[in-house]
Amino acid sequence: MRETRALPALGGLLVTGLLIAAPLGLPLFAMTLLTELLILGLFAMSLDLMVGYTNLVSFGHAAAYGLGAYASGYLALNSSMPLPLVVLLAALLTGVVAIGVGWVCTLATGVSFSMLTLAFAQLLYAIAFKWTSVTGGSDGLAGIPRRPGPFGMTALTTKTGFYYFTLATLLGAYFACRALVNSPFGAVLRGIRENELKTSVLGYNTRLYKIAAVAIAYALGGLAGALYAPFAGFANTELLFWLLSGQVLIMVIVGGQGTLIGPILGAAFFMLLEHQLSSYTEAWALFFGLIFIAFVLFAPEGIWGLARRAFLGAPRLTETRHG
After folding, report:
1. Any idea what DSSP says for residue 182?
2. Which of the following CATH numbers is that of domain 2-311: 1.10.10, 2.60.40, 1.10.1660, 1.10.3470?
3. Apex CA 214: angle with CA 164 and CA 8, to 5°?
4. Distance CA 53, CA 128 (A)
5. I want to staple 108 with a disulfide (CB 3.0 to 4.6 A). Which of 71, 112, 160, 189 is the partner?
6. What string of DSSP letters covers 123-138?
7. What is the SS3 assignment for 241?
């Protein structure tokens, strides 16, 4: 049993070591791709807190990503704050806004909840499109700089330095989320996922827990967006569009919802497959759609569930989602 539990930990250490050593052996274009992959992994993991652990299916999680990107871009362009502070403030702002979003959306359940999240995302999209003086309108915010860190740390302005900053942020967010879902708070979220009525009868205010889950998930999604703005050098309305919300939901389902690590793998799978398929055909979305359907029908536990069953003989993730 101890050996079985140790294997994922050893695998995680190996992958972390490879990611740390990546800049030593990969060319710059590959490092750019890997940095974007880490940002998308953080974005997908944030949605997993809602979808996988609380059964709150969001069709508008791009709102968190886009809001974080715009907040980060605006602060970077209009202040001299160091990059880590800009990213942190953008994530906190997204989380505060999400309290109101969560309060309204949790008035409904099921599909109605999902549609309300989509409505809020489209509302932010319309605001970003019209509020030209702040958001740049359809042109967005361009020329967003990678500001130095505190004490004149210019390493963050380089591609390698920013990559390590992104990697450290992802790892920190992962371990924080892991501690959260394994805490009593996380146990209540899983109770809501399995049987909200029973959890409510036990004396828990399930709506408050759901609002908290939305706020935390949006804050982490905003953190990913706050990293993307200085990484790409721009923030535009596409980051708030409903299509991105659908893509990140696919990442969570394909990777393995309710596992934290699965959505990161799903983001990597989605991004790499998109790059490969788009280089061969313009109809890449059609083929990816077929692959997604195959996962839903034949491997609902996702990539991480398949890997656990293949290498560890673990039960289905629908039975154990503590991954």
Report:
1. T
2. 1.10.3470
3. 50
4. 31
5. 112
6. HHHHHHHH-HHHH-GG
7. coil
Specify the long-range contacts of residues 114-120, CB closer than 8 Å, at least 24 apart.
114/57, 114/58, 114/59, 115/59, 117/58, 117/59, 117/60, 117/61, 117/63, 118/59, 118/60, 118/242, 118/245, 119/60, 120/60, 120/63
- What span, in angstroms and rounded, lies between the C-alpha atoms of 302 and 256? 4
CA-nearest of 261, 293, 288, 253 to 273 is 288
Q: Tell me: pLDDT of 154 over 90.
A: no
Query: How far does Cα 211 stand from its chain's mean position?
Result: 18
Domain map (residue ranges) of the chain: 2-311
Q: Which two tokens stand for residue 143?
A: 């020329």
d(CA 266, CA 257) in angstroms, rounded, equals 10
pLDDT at position 155 is: 83
Q: For residue 319, what pLDDT band results from cuts at 50, 70 and 90? A: very low
d(CA 149, CA 155): 8
Q: What digits encode the pLDDT tens for the residues 102-149?
A: 999 999 999 999 999 999 999 999 999 999 989 999 889 999 998 887
Three-state helix/strand/coil letters over 65-85: HHHHHHHHHHHHHHCCCCHHH
Residue 320 has pLDDT above 80, yes or no: no
